[in-house]
Amino acid sequence: MAVSGGGAAAAALALTLLPLFCCCVSGAVHGSSASSALRRAVPRGGAGDGGLCEQMLLPLGYPCTEHTVETSDGFLLSLQHIPHGKNGVADNTGPPVFLQHGLFQGGDTWFVNSAEQSLGYILADNGFDVWIGNVRGTHWSKGHSTLTVHDKLFWDWSWQELAEYDLLAMLSYVYTVRQSKILYVGHSQGTIMGLAAFSLPEIAKMISSAALLCPITYLDHVSSRFVIRAVAMHLDQMLLTMGIHQLNFRSNMGVQILDSLCDDGHVDCSSLLSAITGENCCFNGSRIDYYLEYEPHPSSTKNLHHLFEMIRKGTFARYDYGLWGNLKRYGQLRPPPFDLSSIPESLRMWMGYGGLDELADVIDVDRTIKELRSTPELLYIGDYGHIDFVMSVKAKDDVYVDLMRFLRVNGSSLHSSY
């Protein structure tokens, strides 16, 4: 049931559950272990804090420049460019690699571990020309040509727009600057965006190959108890009906939502990260306070609704606006699916996924693989979870060595000296 297409039904649902929701929220004001770290964290990325380059890379001696790209619907997105490693030579630029973060994350996610453990630093130090994407609504991409973050319309998007507008704008910029096809690396939502975008010819033509960490298209087998509970509560529909369009877990409302899902005994949130993503074998919990200086980033409630639609319906399709809304927007009663079989066979892929991942389940990953025209190279790690692929202290050896082998093979044809 979609809020936008069935307003009366959604409103009835929200009115039915609203007293329970408000009771949970009011009872959670004092917080729990699930959100105590969020409450004490001092976030970066605000006004006067400087950009990602200034905060994370330049202090470590890495070259980094900030770029702004405008989407066709007016969003101003921040891109960072790291042309080479700390000890590299400026005129020896390697093949362009574009890194796309996941949900509630930003470009900082590729740099929050040490330079020896973080993929962004590792790629730069190994001769790649690194570009960092930041989607609309994140701390680094809060601008718009006419709107502000306080406007409802600023948050009127889901991952569909991130694929069709944000990726198009950012990749087009890199493609134009480098005059070269791009190596794409995405994690989690970055893979949803990527796989949807690669089915569109105007984007696929700019990509030579793609490495996907925890690839997601279908969400039929999500086993995260936290997510399952939120879906069952129709949290997404309640928030939309209540007029809450920005989902920011740093806000008082956001922290209270977390507590309302955790504090009644249905979900064990003693480790909030594990409750949401499943166990992670090699996540450095001692750095959690540092991670929380940068993450989580905001997203839109509409985006959450789109993801929850995928769980409820088992589809990899565009946003469902209801029968009449779909007819007006798409010319048909149901939202069109993104067709994985339309991704060019020539676009080579590599996928890394884990046995403990409760969001990118192995059954759903297998379904994705079967619908592609070409068979991707696969790296399966049985004891890895969803976050391990970007934050494991062992990922350099477990994941990135093989990922870089794939990128080197496919990047050599893009840059003759590499």
Shape: globular
What value does the Rg take, in angstroms? Answer: 20 Å
Number of strands: 11
Estimated helix fraction: 25-40%
Major sheet details: 9 strands, mixed
Mean pLDDT across the residues is 87
Low-confidence stretches: 1-32
Class per helix and strand makeup: alpha/beta
Helix count from the secondary structure assignment:
17
List the helices and strands in order.
HHHEEEHEEHEHHEHHEHHHEHHEHEHH
For the record, give the distance between the C-alpha atoms at the N and C termini, rounded to a whole number.
Answer: 51 Å
β-strand percent reads: 5-15%
Structural account:
The structure is a single chain. With 418 residues, the chain is an alpha/beta fold. Helices cover 39% and strands 13% of the residues. The chain has 17 helices and eleven strands. Strands 1, 2, 3, 4, 5, 6, 7, 10 and 11 form a nine-stranded mixed β-sheet that branches. Strand 1 and strand 2 form a beta hairpin. Helix 2 packs antiparallel against helix 10 and helix 9 packs antiparallel against helix 13. The protein is globular and about 55 Å long. The termini are far apart. The N terminus is likely disordered.
